[in-house]
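Subject: Interface between my chains keeps coming out wrong

I've been trying for a while to get a sensible model of this assembly. When I model each chain on its own everything looks fine, but I need the whole thing in one frame so I can look at the contacts. Pasting all components below, labels as-is. Any help appreciated, I'm running out of ideas.
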Amino acid sequence: MFEDTSEAQGLRVIRAGVHSTIQDLGRYGYAGHGLSQGGPMDLQAHCWVNRLLNNIASDATIEITVGMASFRAECDLVLALGGADLQAELDSELIGNWRSFVIKRGQTLKLQPARKGLRAYLGIKGGVQTESMMGSCSTVVRNGLGSAIVDGDLLSAASHHAHIDAHVPPRYLPSYPETITLRVIESYQARNFSPQALKVFYQSEYELSADSNRMGARLEGESIDSPNEGIISEGIALGSIQVPSDGQPIVLLNDRQTLGGYPKLGVVARVDLPQLGQARPGTKVRFSPIALSQARREWCQFCDYFSGV
Amino acid sequence: MKQLDVKWAVVNETSLMFYMAEDLDVEQAALIGHWAALIKSEYAEVCEVTPSYTSILVQLDSPHVELEGFANGIVETIQSGAIVGSDHGKLIELPVYYHSDVAPDLEAVACASGLTIAEVVEIHTGRDYTVCAIGFAPGFAFLADVDPRIALPRHASPRAFVASGSVGIAGRQTAVYPADSPGGWQLIGRCPVPLYCPGEDPASPFEIGDKVRFVSIELEEYTERGGHV
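Reply #2:
Try treating it as a single job with all components included. I did that and got this:
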């Protein structure tokens, strides 16, 4: 007897939620053609979810912004959830966050709106199986590569039954506070900013604007005196802080444009970016300087811990 | 033939910026394109290279690579072999239908320049342009230098919608919009050839340092090649 292979394998999207996309570690090697890298806005939560499943860090997860999504298993699967707590219910039973669990064929996973944090990551053992385009499964809507998932989509995945019940140790759990502090590696045009401008930058409290998205986090607060001379457009690293002439800083994120001509006073430390990926509009944002050597040490630790990042 | 004076700076944990020149110069584009391609292909540690008018941003895959040694190695490579003819880069011919039906600013550009529409077309198609940067959107190539006679500034306020294929002028630069988008350039024609095909490799025909020549076509050829009015 042959197994019936015509049946759908994976997770059926019943409600896609506000904005849910598939993300792996991002698309590299195409910035020269103007393509954004994409990738998870909260790399740490993405990596934890894959680790809970014994996946590799580059396996694709579903980034669920705000929440209000539900899924039905078309076959037995092992899933994991992390990031913003969406009060996940498996067939109406609360199951908790930052953990892996088995979902049986026909069972429903229901996610509420996030109460703290902004983005949850849903992982599937073996990874979400989706077409890789130009070396990555990451959806970058503005580049025409993939689109947000919609009701009725099938997220293909291989069936798994093995019960694994792994949790993220509590000491590692982020708290998503109302005020976050991002550490900044001063670089790019930092020296062209006046000492007074840098003082304003480090001593002020900014508020995350509702206008923020996967391209960039717009901040509102005391105006930073930006150096007058425009610069020749140059490549923008993930987390770059640009200061347009209105003095309101913008932190450029995963779906950022590849080139920019506004002065930049530095780059947010990689290990601090997940905090911004989880910040809701209205979150207070402060900045402090960090030495390059310290930032590199912490980034090395992160990469070594989640090897393959 | 030129020697580049390369300076480098650390940008973040794993990224370095190489500044190849201080001022804009169309002649540098071919060299920058050449070195960007070389860095991408020859150094396994590099996962992303973003060249622009005067600089190349290089991102390393591993957080463990010692940045100073790596940067000096690249500078040495560039400076020891930095002699490349200015003929580097391929020539891309792009057909353009220059007509007010598809180009809302064509008449105004002619008027403001004191030229006829035919003269604007002749001037725009009369020289080869160099790809100096690619950005803003995938496949959007900034081309220079536009003849000063038709080098009109961009609109004070950008249009909410510019159709895919629109050929625009902004100062000494010209470009083709590879997809529908907002935009503030002076629109003088429309190119029927797709310039960004997501998922295909290459997704876009342009590399920094390439030359682009615009060729004027009639309505019939424009529609035959997939253009819409």
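Reply #3:
Confirming on my end. The radius of gyration of chain A is 20 Å.
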